[in-house]
Amino acid sequence: MNQETEASRRSFAGLLAVACALLTVPRLLLHELWRDEAWLWLVVTESRSVADLFVPLQRSGQGNLFPLLCHLAAQISSSPRAMQLVHLLLVTAAAFVWARRAPFGRRERVLFVLGYFPFYEYAVISRHYAAGMLLAWLACVAARSRRPAPVLGLVLGLLCQTTVYGFLLALALGSGWWLDRRLRRRELDPLPRGEAAAGLALGLAGAAAGLVQLIPAPGTSFAPGWRFGWDAAHAANVLAMPWHAFWPVPRLQRAFWNTNLLDTAPSLLQAGAGVAILILTAALLWPRKAALVAFALGTAGILAFGYVKYVGVLRHQGHLWLLFAAALWLGGGTGFREDRRSWRDRVLLALLIVHAGAGAFAGWMDLRHPFSNGAAAAELIRARGLDRFPLLGHREPPAATVALYLGRPLYSPSRKVFTTHPDWGPEQREMGDPELRCAARGLAQREGRDIVLVINRELPSWAELDPEGCTAGAIQPSEDYHLYRLRVQRLAATAQAAGCGVTPPPGSAAASFSPGR
């Protein structure tokens, strides 16, 4: 690889970052927010202060760093475009840091930035992961500097406050840096004790804050229980995680998100592919002991978390790919040469090309198809004049997307309140059709007029319902919506078929709806 001057590296990084931003802007503008994005922005804009913001975040299982940045943006604009602008800045900064300082050739730096995770999953969908990616690259920059301790401690402490995967990456990168210092202690200047103490203090403080933020409050509805017994089928799913992260090629269909070409293959085959990826990465990293240890520790942590708590989906498993890139960075790069005679170079280049192809496909599909039909459902509700009625939204998470675009709350049948977003508390739960039918009938009787059901599945042909249309074709299929108008005058005639018993009197179990709420 030809040696680049500092000036040429800086210019190249600036050009790549600008290109990344220009390619991301139209995809952000045309991307329909889905439930997690809608939830965060609704929480941010409905919080009058930082203290208010922290209350709903206690059940999110995620760190406060990205929500705080969004809270600052909300002081300027209440439009969700403000959140997307924050996200764009994080993605662009991450691309610049990577292109400016990562120890790889230009072709490899470009391909990585255009890969599935940096270019689509962590760029188009506004979530915590872009902040984690930027902080991981800044940690690598600090680790390779001459006097890294305070800055590295600060960055790793902030990384601990993104997601649980960011926390695990911080532990792995910190351990890899420490081992690298030990192995190269004869060629490196010793760390001043004051700086080392400051870096350690910052890192530990950030880790402690991260633990407080990342552990959901008791009774959080989506948090699964801990799994410590042996489960062979579950272990196979966990072992498939590296395959998904290193070969993120989705099924070639509209609903591609969170799919993989091997999804229809037996679980043992997918687990075997994951093990093969781990063996391959160990071989790729073998000459660089610090990089190998960092990757091994981080991978062990992510896989262990996947087994005992949550396997996750592609956006979670993709942190194994970020960890691999960061480990290579800690190890001084790959030594890419123009002649491509090293088998390691060829394998890594092939993986980068696969990732770039997957990223291009995902970005193109997001431009062609709605990611969520929440905006379309809101428009359909307005177009048919259904927004003059009380709206019942079930399930709560996808109903939040409709609430965001409508600018008004929907009724949660499990919590018996009008709300814009889930609270993830113990009262929030899923309802089967019979219970949902009774809840809808009860709301209509309490309100004394027709109501509209906004449901992300098709309902049976209940006599009291009139279908009012549906939206279909979203990349995320659970955010296609069916609209039904429940006719209050039909309640008496259909009471026996519904089998709901006695309906409570008006106002006994829910706040009354008014159009201005």
Largest sheet: 4 strands, mixed
Q: What is the rounded Rg?
A: 25 Å
Instruction: Extract low-pLDDT stretches.
Output: 503-517
Termini separation comes to 63 Å
Describe this structure in words.
The protein is mainly α. It folds into two domains: 6-368, no CATH class; 374-498, no CATH class. Helix content is 57%, strand content 5%. It has helices at 6-30, 35-46, 50-57, 65-74, 81-101, 106-113, 116-121, 129-143, 149-159, 164-183, 193-214, 232-239, 241-246, 267-285, 289-308, 314-317, 319-330, 343-368, 374-383, 396-406, 433-447, 495-498, and strands spanning 391-394, 410-412, 417-419, 451-455, 465-471, 481-486. A four-stranded mixed beta sheet has the order 1-4-6-5, sandwiched between helices. A two-stranded antiparallel sheet has the order 2-3. A hairpin with a 4-residue loop joins strand 2 and strand 3 (417-419). Helix 2 (35-46) crosses helix 4 (65-74) and helix 19 (374-383) crosses helix 20. The longest helix is centred in the last third of the chain and has 26 residues, at 343-368. The protein starts with 5 loop residues before the first helix and ends in a 19-residue tail after the last helix. Mean pLDDT is 93; it is low at 503-517.
